[in-house]
Design goal:
The structure is a homotetramer of 319-residue chains.
Chain A lengths: L6 H11 L10 E2 L6 E4 L2 E4 L1 E2 L10 E4 L6 H10 L3 E4 L9 H5 L7 E2 L2 H10 L2 E3 L3 H16 L7 E8 L14 H4 L4 E2 L9 H10 L5 E8 L6 E8 L7 H8 L6 E3 L6 H4 L5 E7 L7 E8 L3 H15 L11
Parallel strand pairs in A: 1-4, 5-6, 6-8, 7-8, 9-11, 13-14
Antiparallel strand pairs in A: 2-3, 9-12, 10-11, 12-15, 14-15
Chain lengths: 319, 319, 319, 319
């Protein structure tokens, strides 16, 4: 595990330590090398990143910061490991992807979309937390071609503060976040938009995306509220989503509106689908809740590793 | 003051007690009659609603529950008082409005839109908290005819829990709300939508509204995120909003994204306007923050009363 | 499970459903009979209390309200079940204990103190959440006779709101609790004090207890801060606590100050012991953190049932 | 104002800007020099500390960090200003006090104790936030000699996170503080203890103090819970406190337990006094709530400046 000391890294180490089919070979951290942490009830000492025996692990996870991860992915791959990269570096639409062929990911690891590719994957780009929520909400509509051509899909999403990592920042202090709420990256400025667009393009969806993230005064969780203008009315839309996700262990189409507390500490996505009243154009509102550190990061990374290694996909994952 | 014991009623009593040009004649409550409360540093005893000397006040405010307010508005009016009704009963689009001509409001009290009418008003329907935030964000676009005809204006809004009042409900307990977030009234089911549509209709705006409210784990504040598809590109859109609101004492077009904490405990609306990148159709994102108990309820009610009585519009209002 | 619909009841049902050696025979609720809940990932329908087949279960848990539980404990016992009662009714120092011999508990289930008795117990009075935290902090001192005779043990404790149950109350609404903190039951008025005194008496400890609880703006967790005036100085007091709790699976003497987040969602007690500087009389400060719904209620109840039934004491319990 | 950019400094600037009898001559900050902030509705640009025209102000406030403040107090004094220092540097019991005679404070500014001295003061050491709460709770007992000689006064106090300032620290991030609670500086290690002891000594009180602070998941507020063993029983103890504080504009002895929300954003101390039941030695529990940024820092500093300058003591202060 590279980048083991941040929120996603620690969460992934804790999951790996509780996984009966995996062993945590080592946990490496940059600034906090040498520090000890209690993860999943066990004491772990972080080694330095340079000292990490990359070749000792069948799968190397990297939760290094965006920009710093790609070179280490390349080294881990060169050392013979398969890699799941939680950074944005190798995701579709990111510059590093184009620049460095050698370290390009072969699979974008939205597990529910990529399961077949994952079995053979050498380098997996683990999706961003917002992209996971939004794409899980949109996938059935994309696959069935439900969205009106030329339409704008408006997404308002809200995330807990762990989505911003644990590097000290004044605007993330408790005193600044409690009793507060605000939008950010307004006007389609968020890094995860490129991933969302790339997956839409894969389905030849003729849509514009308008994505506005917000910062919630909670520790963990993302709720995405997605507006889908439809080409034509869909009878019982929730049934369409249920059918698409039938058999998926970590995606549930729910009758009540999803709530963060119902997915917290679980590798789960809860999705509700509703038709809007009083509109000329038939429109669905799809709401998706995930835990940004689990299905939005470490949980999905482990889910991907399970598939990649041919293990039970659910092993080690709280649902 | 009728309905003085809830959040909005108590806030309004406190403001009135601190207002040098007004006196609080009486504060009436239903269930909590006889109870004492410390409001604005002074001790107030609630009289029963039936005992309230309606004719003793130049202006009667009602924050009685929706459905219960209209008959009392009629009685107060019959007793000679001018009335500001904070309930939904007399707002445009609500059934009671049509049913009982005698108690119809003559003014919808979004102060910035209704200032001239307010001076002569006998019965003011004080806007809903969400409607206030959304309409303040949309007014310049409506007035200037900026929105593309036939377009859908998508609004995602989030409110603190005081918006739901202080009647005990299990889903509003601290243990249910902390670290949680969810949408509600999904699919255009919210009561305030009728007000928003009525104001849009007044401007002959050919738009559909799609409004999705969410419950935030904060005590007070509303943030509305409004997507405005434009008929054609607007150069420097923030300048349009600034020009429209020039001279308004309680509306500020801000450069940074509005935050709840900057408007909490103030009768203020903060608005930011941004253009969205990567869209075929020019689109603005307008974000609006207000304190739901002040500019969204009691503050605006007092602002309206100030205008109605010919007092300084800012008197008694924290900005 | 009697009283399955409250916080403690639901937590216990969820634990039981995840316990490989137990089966949840039925879950009974009063007001919420017929309601369905998702507990531990499974859907459970609450039967009415009157319909509960008391004799079908080897162990009946009761989380009925204080005052209502004792008669049902008697009925369950009469039906042949062994009973773990989470209410205060049968705990030492409570009036019902004296009044109704037939339903007197034979064991006060502070597991770490009562393990031997539990194996033969017919009726277990499960300790109160505050009592659990305070007594776990004091036990080594009581057992070793460390406290100065005649001294006052001052305890300040703070609890999350789930400790007050999920019956709607205005003072527990999110809007009343967020950004707030206050003491309650000040002056030794709290119900759990009788249990603490009874255990102190069992050790012939000549102490006065002064217990002040506080309400924290968190969902779950208790932190107790206990001041122990010593008969004489103790060298390495943490070692005394560590020795006393050696081998205990759910009690950990920690080096850093205990934090609620480290014990949340775990059946764990974290204890730190420190000597106070600048005091004439040698004095220890013992701090104890537990999750009030787990080690303070449902977790300890299941731990007790495990011992009572001869199962692995840790089975089904997250640590 | 030196050190204007932190929580206390910004709060003090905002108060000064709203004070009709004072003008904010300049606001100086270290790291954040040149930055602009909106304080009390007005835009303020921070000058560098070196550029601050120390002699231009009748009163210089310093909220510079502990350790950095004393030399600037000396310079401001040399420039002819009277000084209110919010840092710990010049408070009783702090090393700098002894080391640098030239900059010793002549007055410890617990206003209710020091009012007469303040009128002539040249340098005021503004009390620490915890010390303010604890001493206001103890003063009547100290003055009347109520505490049992040789007794230990146990104080458990809890503070919101703004008490730790706004310098980014990982342990103060929202994600680390929400749903958490912990003690710190356990064993009489807190810096404010020296002030409390010094004031006790001034009254020749023969007591030991045991002070344990805790970190609350709230932005602002301190609640101190003080145990006072009495020399002999006191009839109607609340009346004693009420009598002692009669006429004080900012101290209120309240009937219900003090709550943080009732003192937030106010320069107020709420105090309750209760006798403990079931104790051999008569004992009082005194609980005190203040806003740590107002009565615990900036508010008291302005209150002191008002007295010092001969202005209305309440001017510019929200109560």
């Amino acid at each position: 595990m590279l980048g083991a000391s941040g929120y996603a890294g620690r969460t992934l180490c804790a999951l790996a330590l509780g996984h009966t089919g995996l062993e945590l070979a080592w946990a490496a951290a940059g600034e906090r090398r040498g520090a000890r942490a209690t993860l999943g009830g066990r004491s772990v000492t972080f080694v330095g990143i340079e000292e990490a025996p990359l070749g000792d692990a069948a799968v190397v996870f990297s939760a290094l910061p965006h920009g710093a991860s790609a070179p280490w992915v390349a080294r881990a791959r060169a050392a013979g490991a398969r890699v799941v990269d939680l950074s944005a570096d190798l995701r579709p639409g990111h510059p590093i992807d184009a620049a460095a062929d050698a370290t390009a990911a072969d699979t974008y690891g939205l597990t529910e979309l990529a399961r077949d590719d994952l079995r053979r994957a050498a380098i997996v780009a683990n999706p961003g937390c917002y992209a996971t929520a939004v794409l899980l909400g949109m996938l059935p509509a994309l696959a069935r071609g439900l969205v009106a051509p030329g339409a704008t899909v408006v997404v308002a999403a809200a995330s807990g503060v762990t989505g911003a990592g644990d590097t000290p920042r004044r605007d993330l202090l408790f005193g600044e976040v409690t009793e507060n709420y605000r939008a950010y990256a307004v006007g389609n400025e968020h890094r995860h938009l490129a991933e969302m667009r790339a997956v839409c393009a894969r389905f030849d969806a003729d849509v514009d995306l308008l994505f506005t993230p917000h910062l919630l005064p909670v520790a963990r969780g993302i709720l995405a509220t997605i507006t889908l203008p439809l080409a034509e009315p869909v009878r019982d839309p929730a049934a369409v989503w249920r059918a698409w996700y039938a058999g998926e262990p970590f995606v549930e189409v729910v009758a009540e509106q999803p709530e963060l507390r119902h997915v917290a500490h679980r590798n789960a996505a809860h999705i509700a689908v509703a038709a809007a009243a009083g509109m000329r154009r038939p429109t669905l509102i799809v709401t998706v809740a995930i835990d940004n550190l689990l299905k939005g990061a470490a949980g999905q990374a482990l889910q991907n590793a399970n598939v990649l290694l041919g293990l039970d996909e659910c092993a080690g994952l709280p649902s």
